[in-house]
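Sample entry (423 residues):
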Amino acid sequence: MEPVKASIITIGDELLIGQVVDTNSAWMAQELNKIGVTVSRRVAVGDEWTAIWQALNEELAVSHVVLITGGLGPTADDITKPLLCEYFGGKLVVDEKVLAHVHYLFEEVYRRPMIDRNAKQAEVPDVATVLHNAYGTAPGLLFEKNNKLVIAMPGVPFEMKGIMTDEVIPLLQKRSKLPVILHRTLITAGIGESFLAERISEFETALPSYIKLAYLPHYGMVRLRLSATGFDTESMTHEIEARFEELQRLLPDVMVTNRDEPIEQVIGRLLLERGQSISTAESCTGGYIAHLITRHPGSSKYYKGSIVSYDNQVKEDLLGVTPGTLAEKGAVSEETVRQMALGALSSLKTDFALAVSGIMGPDGGSDEKPVGTVWMAVANKDEVITQKLRLRTERSRNIELTATNGLNLLRKFILERVPEPKN
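Predicted structure, serialized as tokens:
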């Protein structure tokens, strides 16, 4: 059976010049993948009539479903609706249900006057099926041509997500017999992608044709994703689980987690199971590690806080790093991060502490300590361990890599130490 293929067209000059990052198509692709729709192409075009028209022609030639976001607003540069009206040979008419919804939003939700420009949001092509937008004024629009679907939605992410969830996904599931797609993900650290591929080459070669292995590297970690596609859910589930168990047995020393989750969430779950807590002392990462930890709900149960000691005086005053250490060894040194970790442990009264200090670049390095030099330390009340990194010159990448490596050092440190029984 031929898979249902989809194309995603995102519209807006702001996307092409990089002023706005396109998160819509990534989210849509993930949601379509969950229901067995294959995304064959993703295209971004500007607010230009000919470009949008051409994109529609090209995508309808290769896909069964074309999903469009953007250009449905009330301003002059929003040309998607009139273009679609002409493309499918219709005319604009007022939809009374949409008009009533727009009135409701302005009168009851926004509590501000509605002008004629807002009322025009209720004008829809008479050849389209209206998809209700519970979160905004621009409705979604569904067109059908030669048994293919074109679905237009607003570019505002939360409005698009609402229409996708409430209207589009159920519609696609109802209209088509879709395959089941199963994923299992294992995350590794401490090994490069090529070395990993070499290590599991025989495993990969032996996979059945309907199970694929993807390598997804990201800042010092590699996600290994097994994906099975088909219609026999029971046999597929059995087979992918067996293969996933085999994969875990092959990589016990580098496996971080057998779930599709970030490393800080792995640490959080580990701490919750043990009833323990952590703190951080950050210099070069400027609070980024704290951000990663606290972006997850419930992190307050195990994370006490961070001391962002960007300045050496803060290292002395709040973390107890001695002036002699800073003078003799420097802020980026094994001795300094040891004292930073112990200072955080003492000040924030946690079971574990992670400290990092480094030179992120693009300047600030020396022959002795070039840009990318990082020292990390992890401590509990009995022990401190340290690790040195030699990264490259790109600042944002160095910050990400420092955070990932520091968290992984913390994870291993926690795992290797048996928690004391709680009284």
